[in-house]
Amino acid sequence: MDFTKLCTFETFQQVWRHYGHGRDLREVVEEEFTRIKGITYLDHAAATLYPESLIRDYCKDISSNVYGNPHSLNPSSKLTSDVVERVRYRVLQHFNTTPEEYSVIFTSGCTASLKLLAESFPWRPQTENEAGSRFCFLTDSHTSVVGMRGVTSACGAVALPVSPQEVENKAKDDIKGEDIICQTPHLFCYPAQSNFSGRKYPLSHVKGIQTRRLYPACDHHGRWLVLLDAASHVSCSPLNLQDCPADFIPISFYKMFGFPTGLGALLVHNNAASILKKTYFGGGTAAAYLVGEDYYVHAANISDRFEDGTVSFLDIIAVNHGFEALYRITGGMHSIQQHTFGLARYTYMLLSCLCHGNGQPVAQIYTEGQFASPTTQGAIMSFNLKDSGGQIIGYSQVDRMASLFNIHVRTGCFCNTGACQFFLGLSDQQMRRNLQAGHVCGDNMDLVDGRPTGSVRVSFGYMSTFEDCQKFLKFVADCFVEKPVTVDQERLEKLKTTTAASQGLKRNTPIEIIHGGVCKEEQIEKPTEPSLEGLGHRESNGTEEIHRLTNIYIYPIKSCGAQEVDNWPVGPLGFLYDRCWMVVNGNGVCLSQKRTPRLCLISPQVRLSSNELILQAAGMDTISLPLENTAQMHSSCQVSQSKVCGDRVETVDCGEKAASWFSEFLGQPCRLIRLNPEFTRNMKKRGASGAAPSTSLSLVNEAQFLIINRASVTLIQKLMSSRQDGSEGDELLDAQNVISRFRANLVVTGVEPFEEDNWSHLIIGDTRFVVTGQCGRCQMVGVDQETGLRTKEPLMSLSVYRKGKVTFGVYLTREQAESSTPAHVLSVGSLVRPDMQSLK
Ligand SMILES: *Cc1c(COP(=O)(O)O)cnc(C)c1O
User: Fold this and answer.
1) Lowest CB count within 10 Å: 150, 454, 482, 760, which one?
2) Which ligand 1 atom sits closest to the C-alpha of 110?
């Protein structure tokens, strides 16, 4: 029995009883979420998916009703006000409360709610005589909470991070009633659910803090108010404000319904409303004011008072449809909680028992509990994967491979540095060192000195299916487990029993035991020590190694087909006309093969002799565009700004003829644009050695030239054929096919595979180059450049072989030429002389 056979619904039923909201979930997906076919979406904690009926009903609503500005008094405005009020009521109802107890202030999201509160809270400064206000927040908080301390400190109040352990360890039973007079307001903030680990913090903390029985409230006199950050919690769990009457609750609606975005709310307990102060006042918030005098009377109603300007009323109307769809499909939050928790629990159990062939566990899961109950754990799991030697595999690699399998996960620290530091054991000092090493929040620098800077997170939504978990688990087993896959049976059984009792699960027939925990699965050749025989092995007979340039390719239009040439001039930005043009969609966004693989079927050819760019594609008329037409470009064509790899570039449009040709072939409105010849884009400074400081780039992503080594291609081919086990379905790829996928400018006959990784300089013919870095690879190399179809190879084999960083080929920049140097031309057949040290 193997791991795949363990990943069955039967096993699921042994670990959790509730699934699918009493419906056939596949039908729900079929009806409401057709767009996720083929995708395993596991990033619901970042944004969940909206059902089609929500959008349909909403569109019908706003296209048949006339909704005016709610601040007017005419009938269309009245309609809007009524619906908005109804939505407020519905929001309160959802959290089991009423307008008598709570008010809803609509904001642009949870973060805006937190900022609003920070700016309205009556912070008292710390003085010689007074301790001042405290702002305490749990270290496991979202950045948007921690950021409130910027406001707090500016007001002279004290911000105090508190670890979860501190709160739990310092509960007091009785408080002295001596400070009824002390009314200094303090604020305590904690997340109902950690967006990092999915841990749910006790909702009873709310009353504990308010009544000063819990640290740190018990240490400081005054009035303690509780800010319960429910943004993550409410996406999959019910929240009953009768049980936990927090004073302030911020939420974002897209985390509950997927739509609308840009709308959230701050729920304010009416008892706490009066302490909030209003400084700025915008339209709709005043009962009266004078222009000539500092006279302002705020609106009596707390919602009116804090909703500056016109609320996003059409989005608020969408919330109504959000609730409708949510309850119609699932029956309510209780069912959603049961369903999503089950998926998380099942995934946790199997992943935590999954082992390499040598018995080493594959995953380090960041959790404090064992996914025992939905009251302590939400539908979020963070982890890092480890190789069989126990070394962490960087999250970027996991992310990249997941993309290849159409599995969408989130990686990094998820805007929660506190939790990240806690679980990854990163000291403040280490965090500073990581920054120095160039790591910033949200990038893909996943390891610094072999230690992780973040993790991988999977999270579930009410429409997530058992099959999603299965796909994810199989993906981990296929891509990251050193075969044979094994399972820690003992642990699995223990996990099942430790918590089975609490769910009333009948443990009747024990599941089949995997004897010895070893299964006979795809015994692929261990690729860690590839045999190098016949792969252009170095001939150590003392003669000089020979490297020769065998191919030159240019890619006139970014992400379109290659043009192979025998010799080609080198311009100031790389090869002349290489990535000089790009195709953008109706929104002006650059198209790439990542999402539009058909681009590779377009074959552009630059004809230097006749000064034209020829465009060809199957089934299309061949057209020709002028290579240079600067004068015309400036008079008749639009200059516009685009982005390439985060860099701003100035471009000019190439006119209607090209636009309609591309739109027809790609089946969507698009335009051809080219780099404005007068614009200079400088290469970003990178850590790489010797990068010329002021290198200019075309519309390429990273660098002027990319070179690959045939010996490395041969090795990858060999690895691919050794991995062929029938399950992949990919055909064996010939060398030319593999070469074309890597989209290099230069192909060289190497001597040893991956020797290029160590090159620092190159001389090709008589042109000198500096190596500026290695080329990181993603699922784009899966696009067969002949057919536009995607395969998992060669990324699979490359990734297995290149543990940690999946790179292939190196970037080159031409060494700063003297102004007197004549124009260079590179030719196929030229001698290539690489050097591992500086040539200077
Ligand atoms: C998402 C989230 C936030 C921030 O919400 P935005 O919608 O980005 O403003 C704050 N806290 C937690 C716990 C979250 O999950």
Assistant:
1) 150
2) 9
> What spatial distance separates the first Cα and last Cα of the chain, rounded to whole Å?
61
Please give the distance, rounded to the nearest whole angstrom, from the Cα atom of residue 251 to the centre of ligand 1: 7
- Residue 484 DSSP code: S
Mean pLDDT, residues 223-236 = 97
Domain ranges across the chain: 6-48+334-517, 107-298, 555-675, 687-838
Counting ligand 1 atoms within 8 A of each CB, the residue from 195, 237, 413, 420 with the most, and so the one to mutate, is: 195
- Report the Cα 807 to chain-centroid distance in Å: 21
| Catalytic (active-site) positions | 415
What pLDDT was estimated at residue 689? 45
Which CATH entry fits the domain spanning 6-48+334-517: 3.90.1150.10, 3.20.20.80, 3.20.20.150, 3.40.190.10?
Answer: 3.90.1150.10
Nearest ligand 1 atom to the CA of 142 is 11
CB-based contacts of 205, cutoff 8 Å, min separation 6:
167, 190, 214, 226, 244
CA of 264 to the centre of ligand 1 (A): 10
Q: What fold does the segment set 107-298 form as a domain?
A: Aspartate Aminotransferase; domain 2 (3.40.640)
| CA dist list (Å): 733 to 433, 481, 721 | 43, 24, 9
Ligand 1 binding pocket (C-beta < 6 A) is: 109-111, 142, 144, 191, 195, 229, 231-232, 252
Q: Which range is least confidently modeled, 246-255, 552-561, 725-734, 749-758?
A: 725-734
Class of CATH domain 687-838: mainly beta
